[in-house]
Every structure is written in C-alpha cells, then in structure tokens.
Amino acid sequence: MKKIIILSMYFLISSNGFSQTATETLFAESFNNELSEGIEGKALLTGIDFIEEDKKQFLKKSYNANNNIALEKGTVCFWIKPIDWKPDDRKVHIFFEAIGNNSRLLIYKYVGKNNSLGFIFGPLKEIEGKSQWTMANTPIENLQTGTWHFVACSWDQNEIRLYWDGDLKDVAPIKNIPDTPFTSFYVGGRNPEKWTEIGKGITLIDELRIYNVPLPLERIGEEFQKFKDKASRDVEYPIFSVGITKNPPVIDGNIGEKEYFLETTGFLGIWDQRFCSEQSLVYISRSSEKLYIGVRTPVGEKLSANVKNRDDVNVWQDDSIEVHINSRKNNISQFIFNSIGTLYDSKNGDSGWNANINYINKIDNGFWILEMAIPFENLGLLSDEDENNLRFNICRTFASSGAYTSLSPVRRNYGDTVAFSELKFMDKISPMYIKSIGNLSTGYLDFYFQTVATDTTENPLKLRTWITANNQTDTYDGTSHILIKREGIKGNGALTFEALSENSERLFFQKIPFSAQAGNPLKILYFYRLPNSEIIRFGLQQTMLSEAGKYYIVRISFLDKDGKTVFEKEFQPNNFKYELDTDITSIPDGEYAIHINLICPDGRKVYEHIEDFVKYPLCVPWAGNKIGISNKVPSPWTPMETTGNTIYCWGRKYVFDDGIMPSQLISQNESILSGPIRIKAIIDGKEFTDKRKSSLCDEKSPTKIKFHEEGMIGTIAISSDISAEYDGFMWFVINLHTSTPVKVEKLSLNIPFKKSVATLTNLGDFYVKKGTGILPANGISKNLKTEEPVLWVGNEKVGLQWFAENLKNWILKKPESSAGIIPRENDVLLQFNVIDSPTVLEGKTEIAFGLMPTPVKPLSSSWRKLRPSGTGVKRNVAFTIRPVESLITPLFNYIVPAPKNIIKIKDVVNDYKKKGENCLSYSSLAVMSPYCPEFLWQGELWKKVPGARAIQWDNKNIGRENLFVWICPNSPDYRDFYCSITDNAVRELELDGLYFDFGESHMCQNEIHGCGWKDNEGKLCPTFNILGTRELAKRIYILMKTYNPNSLIAYHMSGKIQMPVHSFADILVDGETLTRLVADESSYYNLLPLDTYRAEFMPHQWGVATVILSEFARSAELFKKDMKSFWRSDKAEKPMNHLIGLALIHDSKCFMGDLTRYLQPVRDAQDKFGWDEKVEFLPYWNNSEYLKILSPISTNIVISAFKRDAKLMLVPFNNTDTDNELTIKLDFDMLNIPKSSVVKDTLDGKIYPVNHHIIKVPLKSRAFKILTTE
Prior knowledge:
Elements: H1 9-13, E1 25-29, E2 36-37, E3 42-52, E4 55-59, E5 61-64, E6 74-82, E7 93-100, E8 103-110, E9 116-122, E10 134-139, E11 149-155, E12 159-164, E13 167-173, E14 182-187, E15 201-211, H2 217-228, E16 239-242, E17 262-264, E18 268-269, E19 281-286, E20 290-298, E21 320-326, E22 332-337, E23 343-347, E24 358-364, E25 367-375, E26 389-398, E27 403-406, E28 421-425, E29 432-439, E30 444-451, E31 462-469, E32 472-478, E33 481-486, E34 492-500, E35 506-515, E36 522-529, E37 535-542, E38 546-547, E39 550-551, E40 553-559, E41 565-571, E42 577-583, E43 590-599, E44 605-615, E45 641-643, E46 646-649, E47 652-655, E48 664-667, E49 670-671, E50 678-683, E51 686-689, E52 691-700, E53 704-713, E54 716-725, E55 730-754, E56 760-762, E57 772-774, E58 780-782, E59 790-794, E60 799-803, E61 819-823, E62 827-835, E63 839-854, E64 877-879, H3 882-888, H4 902-914, E65 918-924, E66 927-928, H5 933-942, E67 965-966, H6 972-989, E68 993-997, E69 1003-1004, E70 1013-1014, E71 1020-1021, E72 1023-1024, H7 1026-1043, E73 1048-1052, ...
Parallel strand pairs: 16-28, 17-29, 64-65, 65-68, 68-73, 73-74, 74-75, 75-76
Antiparallel strand pairs: 1-15, 2-3, 3-4, 3-15, 5-14, 6-11, 6-15, 7-8, 7-14, 8-9, 9-10, 11-12, 12-13, 17-19, 18-27, 19-20, 20-25, 21-22, 21-26, 22-23, 24-25, 26-27, 26-28, 29-30, 30-33, 31-32, 31-34, 34-35, 36-37, 37-42, 38-39, 40-41, 40-43, 43-44, 45-46, 46-47, 47-48, 48-49, 50-51, 50-55, ...
Helix pairs in contact: 3-4, 6-7, 9-11
C-alpha cells in the first residue's frame, strides 16, 4: 500500500509547541451530504430562508455534545460565507452555539455600529439580572457577501481567544467558569427564531472542527491555510520565462557563469511577504525533455541534516530546500531536500510517487548548492510543449535561525498555490539574470538586471525597474541591462522589475516589498561576562552573511578613555545568529567603549554599534557589604522573646507543645488554630502524627529565635529546624530520617483553623479571581506545582500565610490537589499533600516551608493621613516622580545619579518636601536595565531564568529607559549591589521614599545563584524566590528607616500579596491586573465582589496600608481608546464613585489621576471629620450591635461607620443596579455618642432626620453617601 502523506509548510511551522499526539479532534464535519457548494466539497446552509413571503424557515443542525466538545478547554473552528446578507446590516447572525444546564458557548456576528464578530463563553444563567459570561470580539471589516472566511475560538480555564482568518484578534480573561458540561451544540444556533434582532439571510458553514485543547496560533494558521487559496485574494506573483537551451546545465554541483537560462533572487519571508535577510539564488533552464533547477544558498554555522531516509516526512525539520511545481492539470509535485541528499518527493500528497530526478548537493566555500533535472514526463507532461507554463515555488528553510523564505509571496505556507510564481515556456527569448539586489532591509540597493542576446532572440526586451520608498517612485528603463546603486533608503517600499516583449507581453516580473525601518544589518542581542572568567560573550545576529560569494566580517574593539584601541579581534561569521567569545584578560580594569563593526566584502563599514563597558575586578567592590543588615529590631516591631516553648513577637505568640510544629498561633489576642499543626503519615495502612522527643533553643536574639525540635512519626525519625524573626516570619526545615527503606503511603501537613478565623482565602491569583474571597462551602484547592506556592487563610482581622520556595521531595501524582482548604463540621483544615502516593523513603528527606501569621505589624499612627494621588488633588504622597527618575538615570531601575544632576534632583525633591509631599522615587524589586555596566559584568549571576539577557539593543521604537530584564533577588551578589546603589542614592539625593514596581517574588531556575530544583522525575523546576526577595526588601527597609524613620516605602504588587516580603512595606499598591477587565466591563461593578475586596485590598488583616489603583483611564489607553473621552466626561461619575465607595467602606484607599475630581470631596469630608489615629472603624460585616440596615435586606447593600470621639460618620453603599431607599437604625448608647436628631450628607449638604434612632436615606445604584452626625 502506498503511503499517503499531505505535506506542506504548515507541518514545519506547527513544530513550535504543537504536538500531534497531544491534540485530539473530538468532532469533524465536512457537510458532504449537503447540497450547497462549500469551500471544500459541500457546505451547510444556516440562517433564515424565506419559503414564501410571510413564512420563514430557520436552518440549523444540532448535535449531541457528549464526547464531542469539552467544557474545560478546546477549540472550535469553521469557515463561513454570507450568501444573501450584507455584513453591515446591523443584525445578528448565529454561526455556532453550545449549551448546557449552566454553560454556554456562542459564536456570532452581533449588532453594533461596527461589523463585529463575537465569542461568548461562560455560565448560561444570570445573577441578579447580570450575565456572567466572558466575551471576546473583533471588527471584521473585510467580511463581504459571497466570500469565505475562517473563524476559530479557543478556551481554557484562564482565557478565551478569538481568531479571524488565521490571525489572533482578541484575548479575554475568563470572568466566570461554567459549571455544567455542554449537552448539545448547534450549527446555526439553538433558537435563532427567539432573537429579536436576528438578521434575514443565509450563511454557508463548512469544515467544522472541534478539538480537545486550545490550539496555538501556529496551528490555527495551519487550519486556515488548508483552504485559504479558495477564498478570494489578489496576488502579484512573479513571472519568469525560459527558452530551450542548446547546452543544458551539467548536474555536478558547480554552477558556472550563465550556465542557466535564468538567474534570480529576491526571497521573501513567509510571515510578512517582505524582503528577508536570508537570500538565495535560483537558476532555471529547460530542454525539450527536462526542467533544470539550481539553488545557491548560504550554509550558516552548521546545516541541520538529521533525516537520512527517503520520503521521511521529518526532512522539513532540517535545513531544507523545497521545490513545488503545479501544472495546469493540477498535478502538484513537491520535492524537499536536505544538505546530505535526503529527498522527499510526492505528487498530490502521495509520497509513494518517485520522480526519478537527477540531483546533487554540494557544500562549497560556505554555500550549499543544489542542482536537479526533472523529466517533464514525470511531472505528468509528455513534453514541455504540453503546457506553455507552470506554477512553481522554490523555498529555503534555515533551521538554526527559524527563517522560512520563499521566491513566491506565499503566506505562512510554502504550498500557498495562489501565490506561486509562473514559469512561461517561450521559443525565442533572451536569457535573463538578476545578478544582485543588495540588502533592502538596511536601505542598501545594489541591483543589476541583465539580458543576453542569443541567435534565437528575435527582438530585444524592454527592461523596466521602479523603486518606491519615502512616498516617491523612481523609474529606470533599459534594453540590455539596468544597474542601480543606492544607499540610505528608509521606510516601507517595494522594488519592482519586469521585462516586456515587443508586444508588451510580460515575460519577467518580480515585486519585492521591503522594510528599511530598522536599518541595522547587525543586531546586538546581548553581551555578558561568563561567570568566574574574563571572557565576554557577544550574541549577534546579521541580516546578510555574504555578497557575491564573500562573507561579511565582524570586528570587535575595546577603546580606552583616550580613544586608544587596547583590544581588537575580527571574526568571519558563517551563520545569521551566533555567539562570539573574547578573552579580555590582557586589558586592565577600567572603563571602555566597545565598538562592534560589520564590514562588508568590499571593505565598507556598514554598521557600527558603540557600548560603554566597565571591566571590574573578579571580586566586585560591592560584594559582601552589610548595608541594611542589622542586629537591632526596626520600628514598629518589638524585640523577640521566648519562654519555655513559646515564641513572642509583636502582636503574636507561637506555642509549641508535644509536636515539632506549633500547637497554637495567636495574633492580636485571637487564637488562629482549632488544634495543633500536625505532620501526618500513613505507613503500612496506619496513620501516625509527629510526636516531639526533645526541644532545643539554638539561637536567641532580639531579631531572631531558632529552635531545633526532634521527634518520631511512626518508625521514622523527624526533626524541625525553626527560624523565627521579629516580624513574625517563621521558616521550617523538616527532615525525615530512616536508615532502612520505609514505604510511606501518604505524608501531609495539616493546619486546622477555627471556623471564625477561616472565612476568607487568598490564593495569590494574579487576576484576583480564583480563591480570593469567601471560602466556598465545598472548599478550594491549589496546584502548587504549576502555581506559585503561597496562600493565605484568615478573616478581616487576622490570618495565616503559608509559603515555600520549592516542592523538593514532594511526591505528587495529583498536583492539582497538593493544597486544599477543607471546611469541616467544627473547623477548617488547610492540608498540604506532600506525598500523595506510595513512596519508599530511605536516608534523609528534607522539606522546607514558611508560616506567617497576620497582621505583621501595627498600622502606622499616621496611616489614615496618607494621601497618595496624582496631580490636581491634595496629596502628601507622590508616587513615581518622573522628574526625579529621569534625572537620576536614563536606564531602567538604575538609581545611580550622574554627578552633574545631583543638585537638580535635590531641588526637585525639596520642592515636593516644601509642599508637604513625600516623594517616592521609582524603583523595582525584580527587574533591571540590561545596559548598566554592573549587569554586563555580573548579569549571569543575577538574571532570572528563563529570561532574556537583553531586549532589542538596537530597537528604535522603544527607548532604552523602558527596556529591562528580569532579575532574581535570590542572588546574594545582586542584593549586595542593589542595596549599595540604593543607600548611596537615598543619602546623596536626600530621598524620603521609594516606590517599588514589580514588588513581589517570582519563579526562577538560575542554578548559578542557587535557584532551580529537581522533582522526583529529575525535571528542573523553578524556585519561588520569596526568601531572597524578602531579604532584599528587609535590607531596603532598614537602610531607608535608618536614614529617615519617617520615610515611606511602597510596593506595587498587584494580585500577589506576599507578607514575608510586604512586611517591609508602608503601602501596598494593588489593582493593576484588572486593567483589561475594566476595559471590558467599563466599571468595577462585577469585578470586585465585596468578599474579594475584603480578602485582598484591606489594610487591617495585613498590617500595611493598601491602595487600589483606578484603571479607568489606563484601560482605555491600552485596550479601548474610544472610551478615553468617556472617562474624561461627567458620565464617568457613577463608575468612578463606585470604586471610591468600595475603598471607603473597607477603610482602604484608592489612587490615580482619573479619580481626582471625585476623590477630593471625599478627602475634604474626611479632613472635616478628623481623619487620624483616633478614628475607630466599624465595618459593615461586624457592626450590627451599633447599627444596621433594616431594609432593603441585601448582602450588596451595606453600611460601614467611623467613630471619632463623639462624632459618627456613616457610609452606606448600594452595590446593586437598583435605586433604593435605605432604612438605617442607630444604637447611640452602644455607639457611646450623643443622640442626634439629624445626619448631614457632607457631599451634597442634604439633611436627613433621625426619628426614633431611624434614618431613611435614598441611595442610587452603585452609589455611596457620607453622613455625619450633627
């Protein structure tokens, strides 16, 4: 049996991350039993068909969803074609719908001023009249009646994606996950007749496919490519002509001058159809029996050639040359060669076909030469006269650089036949040669177009060339040749050349679009010092390797301060992307300028990059400094104490009784646990818990206490080394010891909470969705293997955060349940399944994690007075002051001020101080400029892995000040360095505050500085660098408070509360991760339920002031520019005041310039009331003994109160979409304030009477009031 394989470029592209075996097609329908012509075979008619004038027929088709579509993740894709309706009809047209009891997936063209495609995914049922689903959408201006277009929609647990014609158009984070499986799905919609805005007309739908995974962009592109040629598209494809040669080429791997009839170049990238850096030469001739093709292409550093067997489909993964030939009889022949001679050939997808071609490969002087002769007979033609033209394409894949290049302007797919070049067979015609083009990507044109008269040529050809660039077109004409040399071409353009016969028949035509915007033929990707050496490694990428058979040269020079060259080395790269090592041991320590030059074969210097560089001693000057390291307890904490088995620190007490773990944790005089924390093991079917045998205090100081506990768990010896610090941080290193193999069926850490304490959870979800809010009745779990290992359980007053750096020695078959919060009858269990399947332990097994009860410190006595704001409103805290940042350094987070700017910076800072404003200069905890000299020397020790060393050194679209790389604070050397420059800047510039962006821990597996760990399968996994990040934050806190006890430190940590780090913050800035959701919703109404706000954005359970960022204006700037004017208008009052009210009833703060006009009146009311440490907060969830809302009764209509001496401030908040009149009852005796006959709305001045302790107050939807007793 013949092996049938349909092979084209899309297989190659899909290799980047797509696994054929991992993807299952759950459902496929080509509708071949239907009657209408489809894009392939037949198609299904859907929509509204008029049988008679007043009678409609709704066309659709239904299917059982069982095993055909998955709720958890998947992809739906299909082709659509409007038959008799106009895309701008402003009506609904439904294409696909899947339905379950409480689940819905809908793909449709929807009503709106724009021609838009919508994708809805989520719960079917509404809550309080509000839809719960998520929507992605995109304008589809190119949709026309009678044209085919490709639609694809994918989903998983995090986001949905919408694709149109192979391109990703929109991504939307999922707001709510549907909770029931799909039961049915419908092509054409479930009940289109029930839609009031359903449009008249028919839509054809074809090639429906449903997959069990969200297909990646590359695979979506593949699906689009399959039938894209049949969709309407105009392509200016190349035209070439050849006559019969008397002396056919010799297939020997040596291509002589004018040996072939035709020679050309001008390869295009398949992604953008523009001139690409990687250029090859193509040669074509013919005899009466054969077609001859030659290719000359650069080798690169090494040709990938792993496939050796003929017709092995994997040959496309090597460096390869592909030839596609399509005759008018639609015989599509395909040839793929690698450099060692392996051949794949097929006709119409049949790889069993043998073309019997003669071909040869040869590597010569850095070039790969392929020559082949194909009998016309084997192409399905009796001779070259059987057809007077062919369509073809010649392609070159560069495996190392990932460049896919084509002579024809194909899109994404070498087999894009609509764009194939045309080859005409002529009797009398001159040979034609494109000898060179130059490098259009860099704006250099070296063009030579030549024809050669022969004895068979009747009349000379008319040659014409025109180049369009800079909004100008220059035209050149000739008969025998055209020669053009130009430099400095900029912008997007096209080089077009043609040859016309005497009667103006086009015999030769090529159009080569290009972009000379980047203009750099050499990219400096990165350079850095190899650790523990004096070797500098340069990562470079060239756009051109050679010209006319000669290679470019790269010259690297080091020049000292006097401009003298102290080191120079030349290289001859033979690959487009490469690394060069230079040993600079011979040059002394000091400052240099590195010059990197690209020299073309004729000696011209075509590019130069200059970079400042400092050679440091191997022992860098900042190493081992003690800045920010102290044996004194910083304010506001108190010295640690210990009595017996109890540890005391500010506001908390940790008790150890009979186990090696705490038996009780007490915070703010409230017991957190319902019983002791236990390590439990199941051994031989029996459950054992840890039992302590001995306890020893290893270290005792005001800042740290260490205990060593030993005990047994069954037959296994167990010990715990506990390190506790003054801010309440505890780190546990648990060791299990067994001299003989012991089979452990399960090992778990069990933390039982009192029910009254464990009402809220915060699992650290970036989008503040999953696990942030009220603990669900059926509990919740977290995958610690794939998510950051940190979580918090507590209430609005106290709680406990668990964290770990890694899961080393955890044995998990079900990592999705590695952590679980389980409500029980009398308590709540936080359980960590360290070993969840039978495992044999022998020797020493170590497990480490941390615990930290909250709050971590008392709120500052002045915290209520903090007023962070943008300009235009009264403030005393100014975040991220641009004048200071820009004067300090032009590099990202490099706070090393230029000496000439120090006086200017101090003047700016002092101006803020005079206005009573703390100036918090911008910094970052986890990123750094790749251009600072210290990073170039030490970056390999600092950088986060995986992560870039640099981002586009020569990128002109992004200023250097905005470019950064990720850093890992687990590097001790980086902590020393950053503390050194921060301390110097703070003191030299007299800074009284720092604002840290990226202010949280991250994942890293840089083994050089100790990150990365191996799981039980030997896989390298990332470390959660919370310990190093904590140490850096602690040192910064100490150095700042030592310099100025009243200084402020803010951490921007949106969505990631990590108290081991944020203990050392005065302000937490949160909420930026909601930007896209705000853009989608145009409000916070459904984004932040009250319980979510309590679990994330309040200060009291953390001990740190909290600020939520308003994302209204920013969401418009980034995602919905048409909303920018809305947020500046009076219409924005309602959603903006809603956010202010949310913050107010939770005793937190909000900030951003867009809130200015609405925030100032609230702050004025607070100032009038007296907003200081004397204020007592009476929160809506715990104030019923003082006041209550009698009606209406709703969990979303609440009232918080603030009491100061004999004054009372009431803040009722209506978090519903209905206007309401609130009936509020006050108990003046319990409030211990004088009875009042009225309350006053301090925002609008209205007076409301108090009758028999009752107040009636009208309150609009999503609004709040500030009422004070008079």
